[in-house]
Q: What sequence folds into this?
């Protein structure tokens, strides 16, 4: 019996792999998010407690999604191995275990808010292929307890069965991934803005190597969201609906939205999960329609200062985000954006339209793949992050970050500089100060201010002497308030504290 366990476990793993690969290929045709691993992974994200999510983002950064998918796959394969071993004693029980696994994947796919009418089909394919493959593999790979064949015959048969099944799984999975990857991304022709911005003023960029560029390229802009697979939205099927507690709700097609007067705005966005000194922040030139114009069209005359009112925005994949109504009606120029740095929104950043709200963290003001904005009360509807006990206002904390010299680097002695960026959207930055080791605070040179909703570059000349040196930076916002020294984690309303860094200067 013991000599049969390992081959049986291998059969279970290969059968499940083949079934999952076949399901992935089917999902690529009918609905990519319904692929079993992606569907289960999405449900795991929703069910994961906030502290665990924050740990994952803080530990793995943007690699959290691949690691999650890998973890789901490993657990699934371990259970499949158990099904293979159980098959030695009970065909019915092993079949039931495989069906249970695929049924869980099917339920996860069907229960997604954006599930299509065929979301169940990939799981069914996984079940049928997995069960049939396990029966076939067991009959050819696991020797019978009463077998008397020559040793070389079952060995050749095993290798052929195992190798053929593995090759088939690779082919099916690769074909499915190829279909998903080669799906031609939709695009738009952006209109000319009614209120274009001039080129960035001289001095906004200090021209210092190592400091984050004032405008972040689209390909380098941070991405933090809950979507394992960025939705591939067809603009011709897309609508934006304004509804809820408004006198005149309405919907817009993409052509109707693009036909409205567009404005350009330079706005820095950052994620609430950003640790002090973290990288989840970027600045872009956005093209879009001011949200206050859209709500005016809906006839909204509610006092924008009413703290009980929110806009519950919904993405095409069912994500909900809660934004204070006042933030979408005041003069900050919150946008339903369609363009980013002169191009249509990239798929990963919300194509064809997203919400951009200056001064608020993304979890309350930057809904991607936007399709609905519902005016309601906080006590009438609860958003995804509100359910997970994050703050509801999401006001960006004042922060300064050291970009250069890079932390823990070894640099040569001599004249150099310390530099980075600072931000306090809606308030602006009036001063940045740097302390080297235990020395006095020194005022840094600031780049020109493009807008209070954008970060500012800064630098401080420094004579690097041999040895280890510690840097600390702090910023003062446009209201004259010094950022707090008190250290706090991102949860529930954004990280606080002074950024510190250290380098070693070599002789």
A:
């Amino acid at each position: 019996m013991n000599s049969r366990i390992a081959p049986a476990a291998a059969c279970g793993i290969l059968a499940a792999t083949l079934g999952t690969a076949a399901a992935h290929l089917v999902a690529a045709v009918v609905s990519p998010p319904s692929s079993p691993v992606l569907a289960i992974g999405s449900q795991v994200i929703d069910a994961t407690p906030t502290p665990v999510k924050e740990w994952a983002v803080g530990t793995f950064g943007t690699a959290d999604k691949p690691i999650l998918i890998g973890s789901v796959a490993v657990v699934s394969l371990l259970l499949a191995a158990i099904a293979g071993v159980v098959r030695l004693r009970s065909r019915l029980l092993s079949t039931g275990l495989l069906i249970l696994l695929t049924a869980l994947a099917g339920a996860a796919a069907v229960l997604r808010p954006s599930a299509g009418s065929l979301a169940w089909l990939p799981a069914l394919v996984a079940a049928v292929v997995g069960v049939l493959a396990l029966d076939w593999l067991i009959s050819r790979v696991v020797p019978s307890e009463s077998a008397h064949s020559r040793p070389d015959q079952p060995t050749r048969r095993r290798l052929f069965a195992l190798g053929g099944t593995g090759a088939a799984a690779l082919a099916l999975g690769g074909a499915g991934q190829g279909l998903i990857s080669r799906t031609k991304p939709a695009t738009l022709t952006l209109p000319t803005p009614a209120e274009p911005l001039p080129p960035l003023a001289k001095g906004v960029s200090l021209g210092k190597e190592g400091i984050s560029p004032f405008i972040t390229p689209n390909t380098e802009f941070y991405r933090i969201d809950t979507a394992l697979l960025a939705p591939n939205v067809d603009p011709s099927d897309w609508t934006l609906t304004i509804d809820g507690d408004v006198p005149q709700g309405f919907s817009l097609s993409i052509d109707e939205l693009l036909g409205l007067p567009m404005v350009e705005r330079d706005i820095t966005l950052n994620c609430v999960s950003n640790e002090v000194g973290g990288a989840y922040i970027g600045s872009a030139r956005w093209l879009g329609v001011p949200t206050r114009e859209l709500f005016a069209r809906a006839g909204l005359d509610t006092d924008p200062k009413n703290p009980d009112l929110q806009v519950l925005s919904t993405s095409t994949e069912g994500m909900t985000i809660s934004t204070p109504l006042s933030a979408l009606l005041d003069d900050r120029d919150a946008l339903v954006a369609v363009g980013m740095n002169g191009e249509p929104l990239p798929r990963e950043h919300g194509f064809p339209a997203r919400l951009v709200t200056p001064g608020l963290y993304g979890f309350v003001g930057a809904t991607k793949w936007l399709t609905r904005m519902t005016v309601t009360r906080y006590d009438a509807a609860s958003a995804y992050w509100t359910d997970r006990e994050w703050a509801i206002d999401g006001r960006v904390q004042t922060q300064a970050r050291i970009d250069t010299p890079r932390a823990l680097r070894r640099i040569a002695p001599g004249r150099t500089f310390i530099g980075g960026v600072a931000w306090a959207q809606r308030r602006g930055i009036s001063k940045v100060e740097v302390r080297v080791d235990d020395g006095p605070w020194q005022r840094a040179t600031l780049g020109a201010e493009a807008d209070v909703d954008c970060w500012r570059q800064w630098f401080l000349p420094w004579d690097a002497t041999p040895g280890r040196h510690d840097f600390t930076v702090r910023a003062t916002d446009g209201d004259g308030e010094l950022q707090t020294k008190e250290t706090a984690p991102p949860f529930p309303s954004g990280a606080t504290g002074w950024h510190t860094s250290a380098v070693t200067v070599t002789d």
